[in-house]
Amino acid sequence: MGVEIRAAGEGDRELVVRLLDEAFQDDPVSGWIFPGADYRRATHHKLMAAFADAVFADGRIDLAEDGAGCALWLSVPAEAHPESGEDEAVQLREAVDPDNERVETIARLMEEGHPTGRAHEYLWMIAVRPDRQGEGLGAALIRHVLDRCDREGLPAYLEASSERSTKLYERLGYTFTDRTLDLPGGPQMYPMWREPRAVLG
Q1: Dihedral through CA 126, CA 99, CA 110, CA 22, nearest 10?
Q2: How many domains does the chain have?
Q3: What is the CATH number of the domain that holds 22?
Q4: pTM of the full predicted structure?
Q5: Torsion angle of the four alpha carbons 133, 184, 177, 152, in this order, in degrees rounded to the nearest 10
Q6: How confident is the model at residue 85 (pLDDT cuts 50, 70, 90)?
Q7: b/e map 90-127, b = 16+ CB within 10 Å
Q8: Cα separation of 92 and 47, whole Å?
Q9: What pLDDT is attached to residue 198?
């Protein structure tokens, strides 16, 4: 059965933030940023809201029509962005959890590890409602953009937040870049790159 996918609008913000919050509550990276279940339940949604707002502003959020999953994408140009004079990692920490340096650390690590030199589609986050996981929704949301990447000859990039999740991405054509992002005293993230596949006429 096909998955109907549409672009999320500002009216979907609450749904998108809730999907991200629920899907990543038990994620190893989220557990490192917000240690302790009570602390995470009280604060995690603020980081997810900040991520959603950033992608609503500069990218695209694809939403399963039934509201069970979403994917956050940014189109990254080949040239590096000029320095704006503002430290976005600091701003993120101050907006989300001012006393939590780990919010700033994760933002810096992801920025420093991001590949440059080639335009690509960046899958920032993907979330499927916990009771709907394992049904293929995540793969359908990703393929929705990867099909366009293949038509346009664009590579794609992501950071897997666990070794387990790399298996899904490998099935979709991503490969591990051989360099992990190591969170201090915490888990590893797995940057993955996908070259576009030839489209048969």
Answers
A1: -10
A2: 1
A3: 3.40.630.30
A4: 0.93
A5: 60
A6: very low
A7: eebbeebbeebebbbbbbebeeebeeeeeebbbbbbbb
A8: 8
A9: 87
Question: Which residue from 70, 159, 155, 73 is spatially nearest to 120, judged by alpha carbons?
Answer: 155
Domain carrying residue 63: 5-80+96-194
* Max Cα–Cα distance, the chain, nearest Å: 55
In a domain, 90, yes or no: no
Residue 66, both tokens = 């039934």
Tell whether 11 is covered by a domain. yes
Q: Is residue 33 in some structural domain? A: yes
Q: Token pair for residue 155?
A: 């590579």
User: Is 91 within a domain?
Assistant: no
Alpha helices in the chain (DSSP H): 13-24, 28-33, 37-58, 88-96, 101-113, 137-152, 163-171
Phi, psi of 116 (to 5 degrees): -125, 165
Q: What percent of the chain has pLDDT over 70?
A: 95
pLDDT category at 81 given cuts 50, 70, 90 is: low
Q: Are 143 and 107 in contact (CB under 8 A)?
A: no
**Per residue in 106-120, pLDDT tens?**
999 999 999 999 999
